[in-house]
Amino acid sequence: MADAPPTPRSGAPGAAPLAHRVPDLGSLELLLAVARLGSLGRAARESGISQPAASGRIRAMERLLGVALVDRSPRGSRLTDAGTLVTDWARRVVEAAEAFDAGAQALRGRRDSRLRVAASMTIAEYLLPRWLIALRRERPGTAVSLHAGNSVAVAERLLGHEADLGFVEGLATPDGLDSAVVGHDRLLVVAAPGHPWARRRAPLDPAELAATPLILREPGSGTRQVLDAGLAAYGGLAEPLLELASTTALKAAAVSGAGPCVLSELAVGEELAAHRLVEVPVAGVRLRRDLRAVWPAGARPTGPARDLLSLTRGAPAPADRPG
Length: 323
Hints:
323 residues, alpha/beta, Arc Repressor Mutant, subunit A, D-Maltodextrin-Binding Protein, domain 2, 3 domains, 7-stranded mixed beta sheet
């Protein structure tokens, strides 16, 4: 036995789509106002349109449905028998639409009540706190969670839908993500005042920096990426003296005299001002990087993520895409 043909979703076979056969919500709401107020003019004013526009909408509905809906007279407007029946149906459609809208608002509210941020260590420690304080002033009801890790981990969380917005410090935008530059940073070679490099008169040669065991961040961090790229032409980095996973740990090790390290300029201002660390100039190598906000490719940030992005860039927030 042959399979029965599928029933068209829009009704009878060959029928036009439902949207072309049913009046729009605005027209149905206008008809309900006419039924309630007994006057096309008052219904027009309540709907915020002119009386001629309201008459045009009613006539368009009558043409669409093929029946007269409203009897007009100098004493006012009253529904025809068909109009009364259509009004009952319209009321159910409008109530369903109101329920749909309430549900959509609840979804938006749930989305806007939380923000999951993933950020590489330097941005998480030295820039995000003031951005999040500013966001809290604008969105006091939004609960923010922050995961701090290296740039690779940030990308993984975004691609795994475990974060709404991320911040990285590497040389380029990670694969699968879109980005916007939100700042710039410079990496500094620093050492304790007692280290021989702290007393140098001439800048450090890149080859000597590359050949010296340093206190470094782990592979996958933005700092390590920039350093690896900058020193690749000089034989690459020597085996690390220590490999640590946080900026705070790197600073503590360097201040203790364990050895020189490379850190963000954002992270060492206090230590340099207090002479707990000394900057060691390096000639002939560029140790600069862009700081980027990142998000999954093609999925522009919305809600609180959009607002946080705007705060980091000091520009008006882009409008949410409809849908």
